[in-house]
Amino acid sequence: MEAAQEHFIEQEECDDSDNPSSSPYNSPFRSTRLHIQRSNVCSRAYFVVVMVFFHVYILNVIALLLYVHYNNGPGDLVSGDGPSSASVSESGGTLPHPAPAPRELHVEDYSQSFSLPRVEGIRVGHVQQVSLVPERTHEMKTLSLKPLLFEIPGFLSEEECRVVVQLAQLKGLMESQTPAPSQGQEESNQPLLSLSTEEVFSLLDLNQDGLLQKQEIVSHSRSRDGTWLSPDNLRQILTGLEARPTGMLTLEDFRHVYDVSQRPGQQRSGKLRSEFRQRNKHTWLYQGLGSHHVLQTLRNRVISLTRLPSTLVQLSEPLQVIRYEQGDFSNAHHDSSPSRSETTCAHTRLAGNTSALREVSCRYLTVSFYLSAAEEGGETTFPVADNRTYEEQALVQDGVDLTDTQETCGRGNLRIKPTAGMALLWYNHLSDGRGWMGELDEYSLHGDCPVRRGVKWVANSWVNVDPDYQMQARYQRLVAQRHRAKSAMEEHYQPLSHSDLHQDL
Question: SS in 3 state form for 325-359?
């Protein structure tokens, strides 16, 4: 059948070719028409391909422009130097922002030439003029050189004091009472629980393998599950462990190390850390974007007063507000902590040393505001200010402890009566001689005398700085990266002008 069909087709083609009635132009016309159709097909396909590539190119250009736009936007917010910052502030016209927004993280300014400026004290009683608000100057008086301590009357207005107190009351105050030991000093240096050496070893030996590793000691220091080992005990035990070639302690080794760790604790007073007491109520107020404009103004004023880079102040702790009622007090203490290899700063824990025994407060300086004055009592005391030398043992004189403000407040070297609106500035650390934060200034020991009558309101603003320059730099880079990521998300999902909804909280 197929053979017959092929024969029929061939015969038909032959008949067409031999047909005399067919025009001699039929064949050329047919071939020309077929050629034109093939040409049209090729042109149409080429046109479609070109258009597809053209549209893809246009889409890629648009996507690239959008990518550049959304990546440059948060960057401008971080730097705070470009025109975008002004446009954001103008868009929220009802927002009174006298302070630079906390998104203005000048991380680029944090270079190797970065340093911590200090206000010069000159001499006790010296008065210098400082510009903190427009069209007005404040007087700053040097009260002490050890520690470097200043007094600034009228730092806050009466209205600003009232607003901060009201915000603290709205936030809610919580008790910060630390009960006093029921026994004397001799017993305060002993563990609260009576444990044998074998029991202490068993509690530290988490995996119960009969060997004590460094990580087990570190884990206990972070667990906060009891006070049967003090930081001094842990430090001595860790030192003994690291001295062993194996880096581990057997029970016999631990007996010797533990006995040694107990003896220094009994010889040293250790009173400042083991018996710090206070009784008051306090809360924390956020000062970043969306907070009350008075709180942002106070933060800006601290930046102007301390002359520190705004980034350091913005990345520090919130404002602490404290209420002292009748009988409330706080024993003499240091706001910051000495730098040790086994500690890490709490504020740089994002970039901190994971092997550190504990986190401590690293506060370069303190700015304290008096929001109200008690009718009687409530002075701020610096027991050893401007002493020729500092010795912790000298704090106990004739059986009286100068750190106990309840009993010896009147014997302090320097007492400051609270006055509403006045601010105190003092440095908790010395300079390291290279423009950075040095050792803890032992003379910055201070406390609050008991309030005899009335109520005293105080606010504390601390500037956190890590003594390790590289750690502080790494911390600020990590914060900047997170800020950029957060700003990018807010740019996509929430207009920046909506931040004024949180203005009054």
Answer: CCCCEEEEECCCCCCCCCEEECCCHHHCCCCCCEE
